[in-house]
Amino acid sequence: MISLCEYSTLKVFKETKHGYFLEDQDGDEVLLPFRSGPEDLTVNDRVRVFTYLDSKSRMIATTKKPNVHLYQFAILKCIEIAPFGAFMDWGIERDLLIPNSEMQEQILPGTHHICYLYLDNDDRPTGSARIERILDRNDIELKEKEEVDLIVWEETKLGYKVIINHLHEGLIYHNEIFKNVFAGKPMKGYVKNIREDKRIDISLEPIGYKAVVGEHNNRIISALQDSEGFLPLHDKSNPDDIKEILKMSKKAFKKAIGALYKQRVITIEQDGIRLNK
Q: Could you tell me the pTM of the whole model?
């Protein structure tokens, strides 16, 4: 069976004036229009395609890669609006509709929004921008220190809300951010804490002593090499200076230079650290 809004590797079994008909091992068919695939296909070739619905609600195939996958989030650009919703560019021939009922705020042409792809009650590919309603706050199967995929959602007074693994909501606190962060940005992160109220705290840095040292020692060594072997940073330095130069917290910096010192990679001097020759 060929599934809608999923990838399939199918065999070309017939060429027509409209395109190539593809089939799976069960004999199910789908059309790959000429405009949506390579020009040099022949019968019995196998091709990997993504399926969606055309304007007449017929399943159609394309070799183009969509910008968002089924039951996942991605940031999409609005192409145009209509009385019943907004059309978003999701990278394939037909735009994705976000109905008015699935908007959290007004969507205007040319603006970018985080969108979720799902199948509506009539099995039509549909977009939603109502992020909070979609995310699961109960069935959390994450573990502390686990690496996760993030999409930055929005800024709050405490920090940035993030979407975790396309399933859950998390928060990165402002005072723990040492790299460029903006809404819609995909990133890697780590589960710092899962609270009793099911809220999840996220860190952009690996959790634990070994992880922190392993992540930051190369950054410190690279900075030393770029600065002729010396950095005017030490355990009494202002945290803002450390953040500006090395993009890490003072706590992480102190742990990392302690490990590098024990390994005799650096020397800690009164006014900074020096790379040993």
A: 0.76
